[in-house]
Amino acid sequence: MGDVLAHETELLGLVREYLDFAEFEDTLKTFSKECKSKGKPLSKRAGGSFRDPASLIIQKELIAAFDSGDQKMFFDQWEEHIPGSIRDGDSLTQKLEFYLHIHFAIYLLKYSAGKPDKEELDKRISYFKTYLETKGAALSQTTEFLPYYALPFVPNPMVHPSFKELFQDSWTPELKLKLEKFLALIFKASNTPRLLTLCKENGRNNKEMVQQLQQQLVEAERRSMTYLKRYNKIQADYHNLIGVTAELVDSLEATVSGKMITPEYLQSVCVRLFSNQMRQSLAHSVDFTRPGTASTMLRASLVPMKLKDVPLLPSLDYEKLKKDLIFGSDRLKAFLLQALRWRLTTSYPGEQRETVLQAYISNDLLDCHSTNQRNVLQLLHSQSEAVRQYMARLVNAFASLAEGRHYLAQNTKVLRMLEERLKEENKDAITRENVLGALQKFSLRRPLQTAMIRDGLVFWLIDILKDPDCLSDYTLEYSVALLMNLCLRSAGKNMCAKVAGLVLKVLSDLLGHENHEIQPYVNGALYSILSIPSIREEARAMGMEDILRCFIKEGNAEMIRQIEFIIKQLNSEELLDAGLESDDDEDEDDEIMTNTGRTTGKLRKVPAAVQWSADEPLRRPVTPGGHRTSHPV
């Protein structure tokens, strides 16, 4: 009770101040009367009433300038007393300012007793034209204001049908009423009561605390994923070690019986124990016929490598960055996009790169969560080819990382914009290559596969692959890989069934293409679509088996084995196995999956019925970079 009494005067003053601000006149009188009758001290607000005399004078001067048509005085006062943040950031204020400029531009036409002074009229029209080319340019895409951009070029606006409304008697009084309401509101808001300020600050503090907690949660989840990956790696190594140990025990038992262990067998065991980085050098440079060689190499592989200290990169001012990306010159935009991409791609894999990516995501660098009409994503449709190219490169870099794909996939507009950009870029330029690369990486995620199939991307891919010699190696490889990923889905196969003859011709032609990097994806696509009975019938009718057997004679061992699987699928009479691929299945793992079922990160458990060997065509989504990492062609 003592604390309440100690601050009672201040609290009552806050209430009185707010009632005065909100113009609760009757309530304020009753409140003051009751405080007085109860002997409560009631402090007066410093500065008196909210109806500040200085503010009233400014309002009167602005209204007087409006009525008299004094353009210079009005806009001098307007720019001096209306905060720039409101003039530039509030859409309603921008619209009001636009109409005020129209009012002063046509003032002489409406209110001159005789013929208006031509020099003064030209001066006003020129002032309005300058406004349209500078600050007013932001509203040029708004349908409401578009006709008025022709006003400075019309000889006699009074008789033009587009401007008929401006010269009606009711137009100026209505605009004046809007101006009066705006001025009353803006000057009252500049004298914010302390109670409202406290409320806003409390809300802001709560928001900042929530953001901090969310950031901490993201960091905790990132660490959790890192530890989970380490655990999976240790578990895999443990299982491998148990298997090798069991084989060595069998070998020791065999030696008791007098059976010899060959150097080749010893080499195969050691290769399984060594890390991937050491296997190639091990196979070529180690002599396993010399005693002690294998054990020495194994012990050396356990010596921990000295890790180089990798410093964290300095933080950036993301608000300023995004502002420059939206409003800066095309040259500045291109340089910033390039620098942001380099910051991500040249960072050290691990903590440094994860920190850079998390900073980009937490600050919504690409405005994936923004509802503003002008945002960073719109740079994909920039008039500048350089800006479009560097924006596409940055999006492709994001899509190369699992967390980046997850961030981009949260906004469905990103996929639509990339598809539009892909189809609008007529030539095989770097922009189209990077957009295609991003979409191909998007196809690792099932919801995005579904959307791309629904948007008809299968037909677009088939169309450009009809003439592969006109495509760059990158475009060809990523186009075929994307087509294969989409054909793994039943919806994608059904799309292919609509143009079965064309799809089969395109894929059979690609089997003989000189770029051997595309062979696994062509084989995977063929194997997948041949599970559809109608496509099998079309393939038999065109003699697909004879075409495939021609490539068996010329291909390498891996190619031959995969084609044999395709021929077996071609001659199968089974219906589509719903158990093999279901559109109701869980989402594909975010990490890049290879044709052996291995991932670069989390391992998604594959049902026993769906597992495959390296000899079979690809039957899970891959991306060219991830596929080559584990299995160079």
Overview of the molecule:
This protein is mainly alpha-helical. It contains 31 helices and no strands. The protein starts with a helix and ends with a helix. The C terminus is likely disordered.
Q: What topology does this entry show?
A:
Layout: H1 2-6, H2 8-21, H3 25-37, H4 53-68, H5 71-81, H6 84-89, H7 91-105, H8 107-111, H9 118-133, H10 171-189, H11 194-256, H12 263-273, H13 276-285, H14 293-301, H15 318-327, H16 330-345, H17 351-362, H18 385-399, H19 402-409, H20 412-424, H21 430-442, H22 446-454, H23 457-464, H24 473-487, H25 490-498, H26 500-511, H27 519-529, H28 533-541, H29 544-554, H30 557-570, H31 624-630
Largest sheet: none
β-strand number: 0
What is the overall silhouette? elongated
Q: Proportion of β residues?
A: under 5%
> Structural class given helices, strands, pairing?
mainly alpha
Structure at a glance:
The chain has 633 residues and is mainly alpha-helical.
Keywords:
mainly alpha; 31 helices; elongated
